[in-house]
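Propose amino acids for all 190 sites.
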């Protein structure tokens, strides 16, 4: 279990990551938008800090985190399951956190996002419909068909779709992984 938790990041990287995701969460919660300037600043700060702290290896780790974070979320964007701001934010998170920590943040973000989505569906009285949509989505994607073409409510851009500010889930996932990394370091120090 402990081996699955990444080691703590350098304090500078932790600070950059916290500022990035908390700012994005506030913007996303208030306006359902994550500003480009924030994502670009996070990307540049992450690449620069990792290169300064880790040299060539730090730069490669930062770029790998960016590429995987942006790439995976870009696929979700192309499937109409994610907004463009979320794509850019997860790329910037990857640039700051590096690949291994980004993967842990992605897993935690997925869990928080799923819990929030189920909660929202329950509150809105749409749990059955949401579960049907998930099953339909999986079936259509497995058949290499675009599910949003026949059912517009499966497109994240549709105003009738239940939508969450995913930046909040990313911030929660990031906070959980940073806390677990601190716990891991304390547990291994004993």
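Proposal:
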């Amino acid at each position: 279990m402990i081996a699955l938790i990444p080691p703590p990041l350098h304090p500078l990287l932790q600070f950059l990551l916290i500022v990035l995701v908390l700012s994005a969460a506030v913007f996303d919660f208030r306006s359902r938008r994550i500003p480009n300037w924030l994502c670009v600043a996070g990307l540049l700060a992450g690449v620069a800090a990792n290169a300064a702290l880790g040299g060539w290896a730090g730069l490669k780790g930062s770029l790998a985190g960016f590429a995987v974070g942006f790439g995976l979320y870009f696929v979700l964007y192309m499937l109409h399951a994610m907004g463009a701001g979320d794509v850019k934010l997860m790329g910037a998170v990857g640039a700051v956190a590096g690949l291994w920590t980004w993967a842990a943040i992605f897993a935690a973000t997925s869990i928080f996002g799923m819990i929030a989505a189920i909660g929202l569906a329950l509150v809105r009285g749409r749990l059955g419909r949401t579960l049907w949509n998930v099953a339909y989505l999986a079936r259509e994607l497995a058949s290499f068909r675009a599910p949003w073409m026949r059912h517009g409510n499966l497109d994240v851009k549709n105003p009738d779709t239940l939508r969450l500010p995913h930046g909040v889930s990313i911030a929660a996932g990031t906070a959980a992984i940073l806390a677990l990394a601190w716990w891991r370091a304390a547990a291994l120090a004993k």
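The mean pLDDT is 90. The longest helix spans residues 36-78.
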